[in-house]
Design brief:
The chain is an alpha/beta fold and 309 residues long. The protein has 10 helices and 14 strands. It is elongated, with a radius of gyration of 24 Å. The model has no long low-confidence stretch (mean pLDDT 90). The structure holds adenosine-5'-diphosphate and magnesium ion. Magnesium ion binds next to helix 1.
Length: 309
């Protein structure tokens, strides 16, 4: 059996009506990591997570959670994972503390082992313990769902678009909590549209597009896959028109003496770019470069995948 936290083999999902949301995804989530699942809207992220949660039935393929096959050992698989779905759904008439107690009951957590108040504290909702859920803000509800997913202390926590509708300060608190869980050894899987966030948080990132896996790399390797690089150069005289050179992919006049030059770092290096400017009579006063972020990688990869489709 695989020692991955989550192991997915040739996973396919075709919804009634014929929409193929997952088209043969094979993927391992290593234990102990924060794993990011990225992809544009409609890529199939929630479908994959809802299959893990037992909310959607797969069409083809094999999935095991913490070594438990979801078809052969559904109870053990379910006990090993806590899931915060994208859609916020719970009873508006229960208070947060009641919501957690109820969930603990559903998972058979004995009264003595329950940590409801501790969990509310961890997600900064202790002062809302006795408020009706319907009076909570969107961000508070999402954090309550995170606490709810952790009542049975699963080794894996999955968050589907956890920052949707959460303001920046609360988002930071949520990530602090995710990091705390990670430090305690919990494996975390999250989907997000905020690529900088994935870059900051995740050890490894997979990208899906049209139900297919198009990348699955350690975060640093993925960032390195972005080939476009921009160098901003301040020159020693006013420039009326941006000069051209074969090694520039694109050049933009940012100010009278500032040029932004895009080049492909797999073809040329910054030295050649600067030399080309000097050959055109421009002295270099200052240079700054911008590292490619995941947004660039993501766009390049999805573009390439669409072109190959
Ligand atoms: P993501 O979470 O990446 O935005 P989803 O998994 O929600 O993507 O959706 C993947 C595709 O499956 C989309 O085209 C979506 O419209 C479709 N889809 C999702 N849920 C259903 C459903 N219950 N019935 C039919 N099609 C669905
Ligand atoms: Mg989704």
């Amino acid at each position: 059996m695989s020692d991955a936290a989550i192991s997915i083999r040739d996973l396919q999902k075709t919804y009634k009506g014929g929409k193929r949301a997952l088209d043969g995804v094979t993927l391992d989530v290593p234990r102990g990591q924060i794993f990011g699942l990225l992809g544009p809207n409609g890529a199939g992220k929630s479908t994959l997570i809802n299959i893990l949660a037992g909310l959607v039935n797969k069409s083809v393929g094999e999935v095991s959670i913490w070594g438990f096959d979801i078809d052969k050992h559904p109870r053990n698989a379910k006990a090993s994972i806590g899931i915060v779905p994208q859609e916020i759904l719970f009873d508006p008439f229960f208070t947060p503390i009641e919501t957690l107690e109820l969930q603990a009951g559903l998972y058979g957590v004995p009264k003595a082992a329950r940590r409801s108040m501790e969990l509310l504290k961890a997600v900064h909702l202790e002062d809302k313990a006795n408020a009706y859920s319907r009076t909570l803000s969107g961000g508070m509800k999402r954090r309550l769902l995170v606490a709810k997913a952790m009542v049975h202390a699963p080794p894996i926590l999955v968050l589907d678009e956890p920052t949707a509708g959460v303001d920046i300060e609360l988002r930071q608190q949520l990530w602090d909590y995710v990091r705390t869980l990670h430090a305690q050894g919990v494996t975390v899987v999250l989907t997000t549209h905020y690529l900088e966030e994935a870059e900051e948080l995740c050890d490894r990132i997979a990208i899906i597009n049209h139900g297919r896996l198009i990348a699955n790399e350690p975060t640093r390797a993925l960032v390195g896959m972005a080939q476009e690089k921009v160098v901003e150069v301040t020159v020693d005289k006013d420039v009326a028109e941006a000069p051209d050179a074969p090694c520039f992919d694109k050049i933009e006049l940012k100010g009278e003496r500032t040029l932004a030059i895009t080049y492909r770092k797999d073809r040329v290096n910054a030295g050649e770019v600067l030399a080309a400017l000097q050959q055109r009579g421009l002295g270099i006063v200052d240079v700054s470069t911008k590292e490619a972020d995941l947004e660039d990688v993501f766009l390049n990869l999805t573009r390439a995948a669409n072109a190959n489709a």
